[in-house]
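User: Sequence in, structure out. Go.
Assistant: Echoing your sequence, followed by the structure tokens.
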Amino acid sequence: MIRILIFLLSLVLFAGAVTYFAYMDSRITGEVFGQRIDGPAGLIVGGVFAAFLVVIYVTHKIKDIMALPGKIRAREEAARRARGVAALTRGLEAVAVGDAGGAAHHARLAQRNLDDVALTRLLTAQAAQLSGDEAEAKASYAAMLAAPETEFLGLKGLYLQAMAKDDRTLAREYAERAFALRPGAQWAFQSVIELSLDRGAWGEAREAIAKGRRNNIIPLDKADRGTAALLTVDAYAAAAGGDNKTANKEAETALKLAPGFTPAALLSARLYADEGKNGRAAKTIDAAFALAAHPALIRLYDRLYSEEEPEKRAARLQKLAEKNPESREAKLLEAKAHVLLGEWVSAMTKLERLLMSAPTSYDYSLMAEAMSGLNSADAGRVWLERAANAPRDPRPGADGEFHFTKDGWARLVREYMEFARLSPPPLEDAGEGVSAEEIRLLTAPPAPDAALEKESGAETQPQSSNIEENDTVAETPSSDDEDDHIHDDEEAERAAAAAREVS
């Protein structure tokens, strides 16, 4: 519509100009290139204007004619590029479906039709790798490093090749270079951290986390947990080297980032205890236990006040249990407090529920102590045997210490940074605990010793000899009493046998 309007306006303008020139009455006289000109002004001006338009038109056509070869070449180039892009697309599809032959064919077509080699190098490398030509793939990836737009992709390809060959030194170089080139790349960030942990380069891992935090590619809570765990590893290394001041400083810094991190809390509390600062040590344990109850904290806390009177120790254990009353460890603390106070029945009551659900050797030991206090050492022996055969607590540090190898520390750092836990959950469910029936049998009062009964019966026999000979009838126990006595003995024997079988 607009073009039609412009055409009509042009016609009106042209008609107006012709009319204007036709009605001009003046004449133009002059000499041009030695020729005298004398004529109506309208005719001469109109002729000049028409000649100007003709010159413009001819010039435009000449320009089009001169540009025609270039347009033909451009059209051919566009068609060639379209074929190259189509080949590149089909080649990438072939790589995606694992068609090595198709990928190589389309890679050659793309190289032939595309002048931009950077676009085809990746396809060539992937096709070569898919067909098993590692040398060609490596050469293609290495060639990509020369161009800024493909350098990052080339580094990733070389990194994956190095990891496939388990050449972690070379892989680390490529990952660090890629991370420096693109700090926001997630794969480069994760690779640098993983390879640093594998080598035990805790400082490099902390630097990578700090850089990732600045570039917003790691959540803040995850970054804090990872940094806290790595600081704790350095703290344990410093403590092992005798530098307790540095160790405690790094452990406290770790606790500021992750207050419930048990390894840091345990080390800091232990260092305070070594300095005789039991109050500071207890305060550190209290804060950590409130957030994450752990048996290592209980063991150290109990050792802090092992020289105190049982009543004071029991009160302290009860106070610690109140920091995290719903935890399993709090129930153990309460049971231990009852044992210290000699409240054997209360201790057994607390322990019964724990023994029914994945009991540990410590649970059995406490029950043995309670049974020994309530009855005798023999009564607790069966529980000690169970404690010796009980499965070890799978949690790191359950024995009261966090001393790991390099791989162990690396695993702990990964788990705590990623999932806020000290170790992965067990592959299998924990074994069943002791049933209520077993607990009833094992906590039953010990049966009377049959040998003692026989001895006591033998001691009473001489007294019957003192009966006067003129007594014609001696008193003998009735058959009913004798049957009851035998029945009681049999019940006791069965109970004792059942307890031995359960143990």
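User: And one key feature?
Assistant: The beta strands are 27-32, 35-40.
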